Amino acid sequence: SRIKLGDVTPHNIKQLKRLNQVIFPVNYNDKFCKDVLEVAKPVCFDDIAVGANPKRLYIMTLGCLAPYQRQGIGTNLLLELQALNHVLNICEKDGTFDNIYLKFGSEIIETKKNYSKRIQPADAHLLQKNLKVPSGQNADVQKTDN
Amino acid sequence: MPNVQLPPKESNLFKRILKCYEQKQYKNGLKFCKMILSNPKFAEHGGWHVYGLLQRSDKKYDEAIKCYRNALKLDKDNLQILRDLSLLQIQMRDLEGYRETRYQLLQLRPTQRASWIGYAIAYHLLKDYDMALKLLEEFRQTQQVPPNKMDYEYSELILYQNQVMREADLFQESLEHIETYEKQICDKLLVEEIKGEILLKLGRLKEASEVFKNLIDRNAENWCYYEGLEKALQISTLEERLQIYEEISKQHPRAITPRRLPLTLVPGERFRELMDKFLRVNFSKGCPPLFTTLKSLYYNTEKVSIIQELVTNYEASLKTCDFFSPHENGEKEPPTTLLWVQYFLAQHFDKLGQYSLALDYINAAIASTPTLIELFYVKAKIYKHIGNLKEAAKWMDEAQSLDTADRFINSKCAKYMLRANMIKEAEEMCSKFTREGTSAMENLNEMQCMWFQTECISAYQRLGKYGDALKKCHEVERHFFEITDDQFDFHTYCMRKMTLRAYVDLLRLEDILRRHAFYFKAARSAIEIYLKLYDNPLTNESKQQEMNSENVSAKELKKMLSKQRRAQKKAKLEEERKHAERERQQKNQKKKRDEEEEEASGFKEELIPEKLERVENPLEEAVKFLIPLKNLVADNIDTHLLAFEIYFRKGKFLLMLQSVKRAFAINSNNPWLHECLIRFSKSVSNHSNLPDIVSKVLSQEMQKIFVNKDLESFNEDFLKRNATSLQHLLSGAKMMYFLDKSRQEKAIALATRLDETVNDKNVKTLIKVSEALLDGSFGNCSSQYEEYRMACHNLLPFTSAFLPAVNEIDSPSVALNHTANYDVLANEI
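^ inputs. structure came back:
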């Protein structure tokens, strides 16, 4: 496969910022990017950074540039996370609610109305994935910095 | 060394000399040496030898040789002195002397292998191949290396021996030699290459073809092997050649060369077929240098339009369905294919000068994949070609910011900043990779980073900062001096390590060192600057004289004058204070300097910009840079034209003649040469007091060039002959004005032509014309300049040089669509 996972370093952090700027409708600030250095993994297609996933128990961002979607890149990113419990908020946008998370075994726990102040539709689903054996690793739900 | 005891006084002195040598305090050492040697009684006590060593360390090689010869007069068979002398001789390329000395060494120490090798090399360099080979064979026979053992030094000896045979055109012997010893040669690839080369020379074509086929099997990307194979098979028709490439691609499906070479050879429809295949494979795979590998085909307009048709069709199709053309099936192309297609098209249209279109394509690529550094790199390049250097630097900065661990893109960014005259920024950019603790400029000089220094030279030149530019020119010159000097240690080292081929290559490289482009750039700029400084020397007076008191009212004038007086008084006090301070410091400095001078052997004078640009005799300095160019780069017409400019100002008619003759032989239609010829001829006719013989020679030679024509007709002919070339029209127009100032209007009209018949209306040439309108070549013509600028701006709307003066500061806002995509990256909520 031509898809590989790369590392984020202080040297190429701007590529991650660029991805976030372009893919996500929400602007993440610089502190986020600093924190991300520890865990983020950009996905490369033929050595071009096209997708990114700051890996955390709470998934803050997981995305892929539009032309490169539906190539299995998101799947690759989530494969990295399979071993971890993860939790995230996802906003439904123009019906593009991808069931990729459901495919990996997450469940919709609840739906928060007016979750986002800035984007429409403002509702968000909270998804969570737990391993069969519960462990103390279930993360707290962390708010995004909107 | 001495075998008679020195009396205590001299003995102590001698010890002190040795101490000086160790501590590199050469001047002191030399002083003491002279003291001993002045007393003839003690001259024989190794004094001359030590004196020689000191001179050598001080880089006074000629002096050192003299000392050694003196020492030898007194002590004929002193091995150490002979060795030292031989090193100096080869350093100075005194080949005859070197040979003599090595002969003496051989006689004294026939068992030492260096004696044989050194002696053989001397003959080789003197091109006496027979002697060299005899010696090498004698020596080889003494080396007892068992036939199955691989010994690197023996291998190098064999290869060196073989090289000498080939240089002597002894091809049969060389082949037999290599076949005899090939098992003991480490460099197996070289053995095959040599065999191939010799078999061709001996006409044994069948065997040669076998060798080259094997070489291609080892490495299918080496163009030389294909050349060799074609010679061996005596390929004459195109079909036969294509057949070979076809076979080889089958055997090596992933090799690029056998698919690339045919593209240069085939015409028309066949080309389309092959190119289609070639492009598809490479776009699918993702090959960033694809355009670069095809660039050399772009002289052929038919092929260019075929490429354009193919690739634009791919792009249109890939945007709608994921295939190269609409009615295909099979595996879909990944999204990167479209990306590389757009990337290619941007470079394609950039090469063709269609900059708007090029920007469209690169922006489309950036919109889809804003993380790819190559895209911003190409975008910067497009702006460079457009002539908007600030914008180009900005995009190159963007590129480097995406991967700050990549030194290549960092250097490229620094270079683009220098092109935009952003010198401080460029230095800062480089400092991200240079050593901590020193300034980037210093470190880059230490590292002999000449690409950076030559770009700085040009930037300073454009900014009119001649002192800074000259400093860098001298720094580059010093690097060449050092590189030449540094070969000294290799004379012993290579002999010891038996890396003889590399050693001879080094000597030959050093012989032509200043032929390198970096030297040429530095020398050319230095000469141009010295010529400017000769024409317009810098004075020490302040610019306050520029006040034009006519246009200022009496009251204002009084105010200004009193202000000036106050400033002058302040300056005077400051001056006096500085003077006192200086005197105090000088005392300390002198002491320090004297110490320092002792320490550093090649102590070099500090390069101070203000001093360099106020040098007394700029033409002499220019000549120093010129000499190596005349010796080593005589095939470049600019060498001779620069020479002419110098001799013109020195009034050296015969040298002027020599220069134009040499230039004329290279390209008689060169625009700059044309200007030189006319100025030369005018100058000759203005100088009626030349000695007879000189006049005779001049008129005789110039007859050959001008052929009875008067200068006006000569110029008219030149203009007629080059009516479609703006470069030539410019020169002809300048000369029209030069010969007759009343024809100013006509001359300017000629130079500012922009109609369709003129071919080279490109950024570079148009800028040249507008600069000429400003620099007095056409007298006063500010209104015509403004008209021209506007006309050029219409033709090339993005080029900074033609933008109206107001917008000069924030040029980014002018270019049309490039801002749009940058906004795409910002968030729109």
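Residues 39 and 56 of chain A are 7 Å apart (CA to CA). Chain A has one domain: 12-130.
thumbs up if we can close this ticket
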